[in-house]
Amino acid sequence: MSTILVEARKDANVRPALDLIAETCRSLGHDVFRWRGPLSGRVPYWRHPFPCDLAVLFNGTHIKYASSLARFKQMGAKLLFVELGWHPQKGTVQIDPAGINARASWASEALDAVGVTLLKVREQGDLLVLMQLDGDTQITELSPWFANMRQFVTHICRHSALPVRVRAHPLASPDASLVREVEALGGTWDQSASLREALTRCKAVACVNSSSGVEALAQRLPVLCYGLANYRLPGAVFSLTNRPEETVDATEQLATGNCSLSAERCAATLTRVLDHQWPFAEIPRRLPAILEPLLADAATGNLRNIGVAYSLVRFIRNLPEQLLVRGKAA
């Protein structure tokens, strides 16, 4: 039996997956503690990172986790990172010991697919640019060429040979100055009711590393990828940087109805990404195979090694949850 700490989250989209991970770990005979991380919201658990053999974190790459990650490393705990899936995002999860998205253990593996057929390009359509959140770790940690959406969007508006239509992120409306700047550069703003509707009118999609890029792959659309992503693979997407000529070349190619991407490599990339996301219901079946190697050389219960305090911590953990809720001062 190992001691496993599983983060808890208030977010209703995330909570069921983390709860099911905790339940699965308990069903395997492990001693499980729940933990309120720096981005958990008001959930009824302690924020102190109890000594453990394994810590399960949601995302966990945000700067606010730095001190906790240092603490886990100091105690010799293994880590398991969890995030929502890609397509569909709701009701699916990605779980990996190395990290999420482009940092996953499998993301840098070579793609075993031979490109034979060129990806078809729609006769009509524009370049749909998908905005992301400036504070998201996809941008702060995995966007080496653009520090924010303003830099990204205006770069494309200036260098695209295709008409540009910008779709704002559903959780963040663009400020008025960016709206005016995009329009001054000849771009328009997407008013579609859904991403699916927006995709029906475009010839290609541009993003830094959005999970919506996976949906574009599913629609067999050319993707211009400007950041580190688990689908940034040669022949599957246009792997671009902030060099203007790269955007010019890719969009001029698409404007003429041509595309150097491979239909087979696009399909294989989509399959590989989707194979690494789990519907919540599959967590009990698939999680043990990940836990076993992580815990193979774990200490025989780090928490138990602290002696009398173990009994006290177990008692605290098992108190009714409402007694663990901290006041606003916490």
Q: State the order of secondary-structure elements, H for helix, E for strand.
A: EHEEHEEEHHEHEHEHEEHHEHH
| Gap between N and C termini | 32 Å
Tell me, what's the shape?
elongated
Helix content: 25-40%
Low-confidence stretches are: 324-330
The CATH C-level name of the largest domain is: Alpha Beta
Q: What structural class do the secondary elements suggest? A: alpha/beta
Please work out how many helical segments DSSP would assign.
11
The percentage of residues in β strands lies in 15-25%
CATH topology of the largest domain: Rossmann fold
Instruction: Give the beta-strand count.
Output: 12
Give the strand order, joined by hyphens, for the main sheet. 2-1-3-4-5-12
- Average predicted confidence as pLDDT: 92
Structural overview:
- This protein has 330 residues and is α/β, with parallel strands linked by helices.
- It has two domains: 3-106 and 277-324, Rossmann fold (3-Layer(aba) Sandwich), CATH 3.40.50; 126-275, Glycogen Phosphorylase B (Rossmann fold, 3-Layer(aba) Sandwich), CATH 3.40.50.
- Helices cover 32% and strands 16% of the residues.
- The protein has eleven helices and twelve strands.
- Strands 2-1-3-4-5-12 form a six-stranded mixed beta sheet, covered by helices on one side. Strands 8-7-6-9-10-11 form a six-stranded parallel beta sheet, sandwiched between helices.
- Helix 1 (15-27) packs across helix 10.
- The two termini are 32 Å apart.
What would a concise description of this structure say?
With 330 residues, this protein is α/β, with parallel strands linked by helices. The protein has helices spanning 15-27, 66-75, 137-140, 149-159, 176-184, 195-199, 212-218, 244-255, 263-275, 283-295, 308-317; strands at residues 3-8, 31-36, 54-58, 78-84, 92-96, 126-130, 164-167, 188-189, 202-207, 223-225, 238-239, 278-279. It is built from 11 helices and 12 strands.
